[in-house]
Amino acid sequence: MTIERCLVAGAGLMGHGIAQSLAATGRTVVLYEPDLGRAMAGRERIAANLDRAVAKGRLTADDRDALVGRIEPIDDLGRAADVDLVVEAVFEDVAVKTALWAELDRRAPAGAIFASNTSSISIDTLAGAVAEPRRTHFVGMHFFSPVPVMPLIELIRGSATSDETEIAVRALAADLGKQVIVSADRPGFIVNRILMPFLAESMRAFEEGLGSADDIDTGVKVGLNHPMGPLELADFIGLDVCLGIMKVLQDGFDQVHFAPPRVLIELVEAGDLGQKTGRGFHTYPRG
Q1: Angle at 240 between CA 185 and CA 186, to 5 degrees
Q2: Is the pLDDT of residue 218 over 80?
Q3: With pLDDT > 70 as the criterion, what percentage of the chain qualifies?
Q4: CATH architecture, domain 5-183
Q5: What is the tens place of the pLDDT at every residue in 4-53?
Q6: What distance lies between CA 212 and its chain's CA centroid?
Q7: Considering the entire predicted model, what is its pTM?
Q8: Domain limits of the chain?
Q9: Is the N or C terminus of the chain more exposed, i.e. has fewer CB atoms within 10 Å?
């Protein structure tokens, strides 16, 4: 399976990073959002990332311009008609993802690889949105944020995923400079299955007044030698994203330690989603 033309659905935190990484390998990318302004904003974020790389001498201005030129913002899924790969990076919601995949199934070539960046939802559940012959090309390809920097991809095979699809995804990951780990198709996969209970317990410690957010984060950073504290990390991921993953884990395993803490639910309901809104367990300067 040759992968040259790519479509990334979703231009947010993960999607724009995936588009940047694909374009950095010389591939052409169409970056889709139903609102063209959001797709264009995604490309602008990529350009800003690359401007910083140019300022630090890590990239030439000509290379930056060439990379950005390989990314085209679009609002029309008809452009999926000639792509080799579709990467879906939309909100972690089964209904949203399956509706998008059903639409892409009607538009993309039969041989295109369908890769979901889902961080917790069953690949078989998502693959159920496409026609049965397509499911051999359906796979989980979970990137980590920030995508251009983080060197890991979780590869998740569904029950129908072919060996050929796995080989193609591994080859692509190697081109991207990423290390691959393979997870069974179970809620949360490997990393979030381990991470989310850790974040949830940190949130419960904060909720119970065991320590301040700063003290809990400092305790983990200094005492456990983690680069980022758990509450700071949750803010970075997005508290709404954490809540969505914890709900998937709770539904999948029905165990208390996977349940989202009350403080997390309250922050999300208040619209305090972490760094992207300026407030979560910590506050962040705007702009």
Answers
A1: 10
A2: yes
A3: 100
A4: 3-Layer(aba) Sandwich (3.40)
A5: 999 999 999 999 999 999 999 999 999 999 999 999 999 999 999 999 99
A6: 29
A7: 0.93
A8: 5-183, 192-269
A9: C
Sequence-distant (≥ 6) Cβ neighbours of residue 139 within 8 angstroms: 113, 114, 115, 116, 123, 155, 156, 157, 158, 161, 165, 166, 169
3-state class (DSSP) for residue 279: strand
Residue-level pLDDT at 286: 74
Question: Is the four-CA dihedral 202, 206, 211, 217 of positive or negative sign?
Answer: positive
Q: Report the CATH superfamily, name and number, of domain 192-269.
A: N-(1-d-carboxylethyl)-l-norvaline Dehydrogenase; domain 2 (1.10.1040.10)
Q: Do 213 and 231 meet the contact criterion of CB atoms below 8 Å apart?
A: yes
Rounded Cα–Cα distance for residues 63 and 73 (Å): 19
**Considering Cα of 227, then 230, then 232, then 236, what sign does the dihedral take?**
positive
Positions marked active-site: 119, 142, 154, 192
